[in-house]
């Protein structure tokens, strides 16, 4: 009989640390634990933090400029110029064929909306701007919702607010030595309590050294499931909350095959941060 290979290994020649012993105990119980290379060093975390500062500045620049009548290509231009001015690289540009530097997702577009000159923002639109920056090889990923013109319908305003609450509740559920499923459970409970659907086809993810790493961070699920969360792990939480069904489809008119639309074409909202797990809970790296 072939023995199951252990995921967690102590450093050669060193006594197991308290963290080693905790992780090995969970693994012995049959829980999915991270591998050691998923734990970022202090130097790596500092690099991701610096990228997060640029990422935040980029979204701040969008917040200052966004207005009724603006087209989404102008948002892309702002993000590209901000990256150039701050020695950063927009991670989205040319990623698996994605043609722009940022994602701009309006109303029923859940995510991966492609900036275009013909997409002109109207008063009352809600738009998610999703930016990932690379600074000195380190990735930081965040997104914000904007209400164009500052006022929209009560229904859309409530959706935007609850989506932000879902991010905050998910982050609060992320504790050291808890599980990814705890995050998803908390988000799903809050969203469905408010009558909304939680997108299941896309998720948060590990990030920092690469654009997308393990673990997958589902925004629905059950407590005590998924990967164990331990100090030093860096990941995004980015719930996509739909006004109606959780189901989605790819826009057939998108020649790049990226834009994701709600199944019933009702509005969607999303907020995202990059977090590092500490001994006391998560810390936001994309303030």
Describe it.
This protein is of the alpha+beta class. The chain has one domain: Creatinase/methionine aminopeptidase superfamily (Creatine Amidinohydrolase, Alpha-Beta Complex). 29% of the residues lie in helices and 23% in strands. The protein contains 5 helices and 15 strands. Strands 1, 2, 4 and 5 form a 4-stranded antiparallel β-sheet that branches. It has a 3-stranded antiparallel β-sheet with strand order 3-12-11, with no helix packed on it. A 3-stranded antiparallel β-sheet has the order 6-10-13, with helices on one face. Helix 2 crosses helix 3 and helix 4 packs antiparallel against helix 5. The longest helix is centred in the first third of the chain and has 24 residues. It is globular and about 60 Å long. The mean pLDDT is 96. InterPro entries: Creatinase/aminopeptidase-like, Pept_M24, Pept_M24_MAP, Pept_M24A_MAP1. Monomer. Its EC number is 3.4.11.18. It comes from Prevotella veroralis F0319. Belongs to the peptidase M24A family. Methionine aminopeptidase type 1 subfamily.
